[in-house]
Each structure stands twice: as structure tokens, then as C-alpha cells.
Amino acid sequence: MSDAEFVRMENITKTFPGVVANDDVSMSIRKGEIHGLLGENGAGKSTLMKILYGLYSADEGDIWVDNDRLEMDSPQDAIDAGIGMVHQHFKLIPRLSVSKNIILGKREPAATFKGNNGPESGVLESLTSNDIVQSLASRFTLGLDAPEKEIQQLSDEYGFDIDVTAPVWELGVGERQRVEILKALYRNVNLLILDEPTAVLTPTQAERLFETLEKLTDEGLTVIIITHKLDEIKQVTDRVTVLRDGKDIGTVATRTQTSDDLARMMVGRDVLFEIDKDDVSMGETVLDVSALRAEDDRGIEAVSGVEMNIRSGEIVGLAGVSGNGQKELAESLVGVRNTTGGSIRVGGTDVTNEPPGAFIDSGVSFVPEDRHKDGCAGTLSIMHNAVMKRYDDSEFCDRFRLNYEAMEKYADTLVEEFDVRGINDVREINAGELSGGNLQKLILAREMLREPDLLVANQPTRGVDVGAIEFIRERLIEQRQSGTGVLLLSEDLDELFDLSDRILVIYQGEVVHETTPEEADRQRISLEMNGGKEEVKQSTKIAADGGRSNS
């Protein structure tokens, strides 16, 4: 890392109706460093980076890159300045291949259009992304053999393990995240902004990403990484800037701060990293799964004979490397994915392959892995999302008309009890406008306040800040204490150990190991998660105190 300044943002202010997202924020980024950006959900981190990337225009303030003052009026201005951004929510076209998604929008003079009658005139650099998509839709294909090979080599070089000829819709969430990173790397950026890059990665994949980032910074790349995970900040960054309520609290050298220090800067108070869990008397079986089988979206078996049960007042944690059937299992257990074999009984009633409504009526709640795609209707209001599973309740409907006053009051209750921020009118603000963490809390509020008999929670704390993680974990414990049976799917082993009464390990669609947090051997769990094989240990350059070497 050099002491030379590469990017400087001075006195940035950005307001939206009723909200000051950035309030006179300043930060400086050095060449070749990995710079962390910390803050609670809604603290203004993504807004600040979207200003740097040209997606938003600042109301006040200046941006300097290599001592040149720049006007960032569009992402193209940022790209021209050597700045790339990987967004938390994917910007990919599912029906196109990985390579075509990466090529889209990049000037690529080597690529030409080829139709049934041979090459057509025109090169990619003269076309817009819309032109390209329309041409593809008209049965033209891009002559991208050379770029495709280059992208595959880039993927292999950094260990992303992606077939670049595969259509994006076939990829898992973690693979799509890696495609976004590849897209930025392919453009040879000088500054790479990563918004929650590990939110959908397994620990091994995250470690590999960090090694990749260190290699890239050794070669001169500069990185800004937004993350809510303090251990990642400690592990991989050189310095960190903290935002709170839109204001910049300060920039510090990472190695000089403890996790407690950083958490206190973020939320303005001490944060509990361990949750006390009282003993609870478990009741009757609320979920009984026998020989369950289900296929993924490609028609390939993803759940292979799962046997499991959950009792009232019990949290069962499911550990596994991403892509081993967790998503398909969770969706099968709530009725949004048909099964190909076996049975599901909720409260003693067979609901196998019944529609989702039957599961809801049986007292099942669901927190899906993808909160935007599956957890909400982004273009509908907070109010409509809050009562989404209760429209026909007499409280909200008299058979012919919805009671909007009752719906609004209920939505306000959810927002207040779960501390969902950035909302001044539940009727006017759409769910898709919320930050990731606040949307997650809204979904949890909707699902938990139904007082379910069974709660299936898939990655409930993924991509949220430490304050929200503390809050969500406490509410999961409260659900357990109220008698709800909980299936907790998480790739955070610490979370599973802290919250679970039992831990199951899934590998290639099968439950291969069962234990309790008290009796568990972490090494054994890690082995079972990888099919009984030793996980390949990646070499690291992390200093013994948890910070990056500044040599």
C-alpha cells in the first residue's frame, strides 16, 4: 500500500425526500489499499459509493481522482476514470451466458455480429447494451470466442470456478456474485468498489476472494469494501471509514482497533456478540420430514432422501456449503417447490406438495434466502407487504373490501417493534426502496408476528449490520421461547452454535451428520460439510493480529 492519495471525497451531502443520506461526509482512499466502509443499514454507505460511481449526483461536495476534480454524472464517467462497482443486488440478464453478461456494455472491437449468412457489419463498440440484447433476440449471436476464452482464464486464475458458457439463470446465488466481480475485473479497473461482496459466499469462497483482492492490490488495484462483518474488516482491510446516521465518524487504521471498538463506532453503544439462551421445555413435533426428495430449477435432484424433525421450542440449525440443497429443502418445507418423493407433515398433517397457502394455514412462516426476489413485492408499499399473508383475515378484510386503516396500523406496529428505519409513511414507501437490513427486518416482522408453529429461516442475518444481527438473533430466541419450532439455515457456524439446540449437516442434498452445540466438534462439522474430505487450506498473508500487512 502506498501513502499516495488516489481518491478523495470532500464534504459530500446527499438528501432524499425526508432523509439526509450523506451529511458532509469526507473520506480519502490511498493507492493499493483495501479500504473498509462500515456502518449500520441506512447509514449512507451505499449512497456514498453510488455517488462515487456516478449513479447518484451529490447535492454538495467534490470528488478528486488522481488529483483531478471530476464530475460524476453517470457510471460511464466513473468507468472512464477507472472505477468499477459490484453491487449488492445483481445486475445480470438471466437468459444470457456468463460471458455475454460480462461483455455487455464493454467496448470490444474484436467482437462482430454473425448471422445465418455470415458476418454482419458493425462492431460491439458502436452498439449500446440495448442494441446487443435486441440483436441477440433477433437470432444473431456475438462472435465472442476470444473474449470468452479470456474470461474463462480470468475466472480460473482467481479460482472463481465458473463455466462462462453457462446461462446465468442456472447459477446459484454465490456464483452470480462471482460473475459480477469478474465483470469488473474484466474491465481492468483501477478502483474496485465491492458492496457486501461476501454476503452470498461461503467462508471458503470468501477467503479465496480476500486472497484475490490482496493479489490485485499488490498489483496496484485499489479496493473499497462495504461489509457488515467485523471479522472481515479486521482480516482484510488496511483502513476503515465508519458512517453513522449519514455522518462520517472517522477513518482509522484497522490494526489499531478491536471488533468492539468498531462496533461501538458503528452503533454508538456496546454490542452483544453472544446471546444468552435459556433452557426451554420442548413440546410436540411440529415438523416431520421423511425420505424427502426434490429437484432444483434445472431438474437435477438437489434434496436426496432427507430425514428430519423439529419440535416446538427447538431451533435446529442446518450447516452446509452453499449449493448443497439448502435452498431447495427450505422451499420444499414451505410449499413453494414441489417434491419428487417422501413426505412433509406439519403439526401431524400431511402437507406434501400442497400449495403454499396450505402451509401458511398450517402455521408455517418463511424467511427466504433472497429477500428482494422471494421475500417481498418490491413495487408494493410497506403496508401491503406487511399484511401479504393476512389479506383475508377479518381484521383487514370484510369479504369485499380491505380495511386500509387497520392495515396501516398493523404495518406501523411491525415497523416499530422491529425497528425498521427510513419509513415515514407505510402507505407511500415501497418495500424495494428499503436498505437490505431494514427490508430483512420487515420480512422477519411479518413472518414472526404471525406467531407461527414453524419458522423456516434461510440466512436471516446475511448482509445486515452488527446491530441488526444482534436484534435478529434475539428475536429468533424469543420465537423459540414462545414455542415456535425453528429451522435455521446459515453459513455462519458461530451463529449456528450460538442459537441452535441441534445442528444438522447437509452435503449433496443429504443430512450426513447430527450433533448438538455442546457435543459438536467443529473440525468434524467442517469435514462433513465437505463430504468427509479435508478442506483445502488457502495460504494467507494475514498478520497475526488480524490486520493486513502494510509492508
UniProtKB/TrEMBL annotation:
Sequence ranges assigned to domain ABC transporter in this UniProt record: 7-270, 287-533
Species this protein is from: Haloquadratum walsbyi J07HQW2
Ranges for region Disordered: 528-551
Keyword Ion transport on entry: no
Biased composition (Basic and acidic residues): 528-538
Keywords associated with the record: ATP-binding, Nucleotide-binding
Keyword Transmembrane: no
Name by which UniProt lists this protein: ABC-type uncharacterized transport system, ATPase component
Classification of source organism: Archaea, Methanobacteriati, Methanobacteriota, Stenosarchaea group, Halobacteria
Classification via SUPFAM superfamilies: P-loop containing nucleoside triphosphate hydrolases (SSF52540)
GO molecular function, one term: ATP hydrolysis activity
